[in-house]
Design goal:
There is one protein chain. The chain is built from 7 helices and 11 strands. By secondary structure, the protein is α/β, with parallel strands linked by helices. The protein has a single domain, classed as Formyl transferase, N-terminal domain (Rossmann fold). The strands form 2 sheets. Strands 3-2-1-4-5-6-7-11 form an 8-stranded mixed β-sheet. It has a 3-stranded antiparallel β-sheet with strand order 8-9-10. A hairpin with a 3-residue loop joins β8 and β9. The longest helix is centred in the last third of the chain and has 24 residues. It is globular and about 45 Å long. The structure holds 5-O-phosphono-beta-D-ribofuranosylamine. The site of 5-O-phosphono-beta-D-ribofuranosylamine has 14 residues, from α1, β5 and α6.
Length: about 220
């Protein structure tokens, strides 16, 4: 908690357009959180410049400086712990986090993934969606569990796959929805409408969520 607002740390690896969506939502008053830290595993991540331009504290934990995945996870975990955020958002964070890290922050760790999970976990989701010939594609925000892209889905936004789409065109259509979906879910979390339950999965407004929330029905 910072200045009466829940504290959010954002973990990035690259461009940071989802981070920018959060920055913009806070700046415009649509999202009442304190963005207390942006942490990148890559010192060259352009998202760090976005964070600095917005006056946010930035930190780098360069994974290449560690001899093992566990050592990196532990250093990152200590960094996050020191910040004591209420919510940790993986926004284009491209390192797989181990069980020890995930368990430490379970229930306050969310990720944005560019597919309609459980379809297409992992990388190259847009090309894989095209190759599979699906008619609908999209984005998911989910609680992070030790299973890669396998944690309980909180919310999704769908987009159509249009004739002639290439992966870049499809990615751009999905990205536009990502930038609405992520601030929306963060807002639901800070409003304490969402939580992760060990047995029930995602609990929304006190009830287990049978299906992920659908952004398009709320923000068309
Ligand atoms: C987004 O597509 C996000 O869903 C995925 O990685 C990409 C990050 O983009 N996890 P950006 O760095 O937020 O621009």
């Amino acid at each position: 908690m910072t200045g009466g607002r829940l504290s959010v740390a954002v973990l990035i690896s690259g461009r940071g357009s989802n981070l920018q969506a959060l920055i913009d939502a806070v700046a415009s008053g649509r999202l009442a959180v304190s963005l207390d830290a942006v942490i990148s595993n890559d010192p060259r991540a352009p998202g760090l410049e976005r964070a600095a331009a917005a006056g946010l504290a930035t930190f780098v934990e360069d994974h290449r400086a560690f001899t093992s995945r566990e050592a990196f996870d532990d250093a990152l975990g200590r960094r996050v712990d020191a910040l004591a955020p209420d919510l940790i958002v993986l926004a284009g964070f491209m390192r797989v986090l181990g069980t020890r890290f995930v368990d430490r922050f379970l229930g306050r760790l969310i990720n944005i993934h560019p597919s309609l999970l459980p379809a297409f976990p992992g990388l190259h989701t847009h090309q894989r969606a095209l190759d599979a010939g699906v008619a609908r594609h999209g984005v998911t925000v989910h609680f992070v569990t030790p299973e890669l892209d396998g944690g309980p889905a909180i919310a999704q936004a769908e987009v159509p796959v249009l004739p002639g789409d290439d992966a870049d065109q499809l990615a751009a259509r999905v990205l536009e929805r990502e930038h609405v979906l992520l601030p929306w879910v963060v807002d639901l979390f800070v409003a304490r409408r969402l939580r992760l339950d060990a047995r029930a999965g995602v609990v929304f407004d006190g009830k287990p969520l049978a299906q992920p929330l659908q952004l398009n029905s709320v923000h068309p």
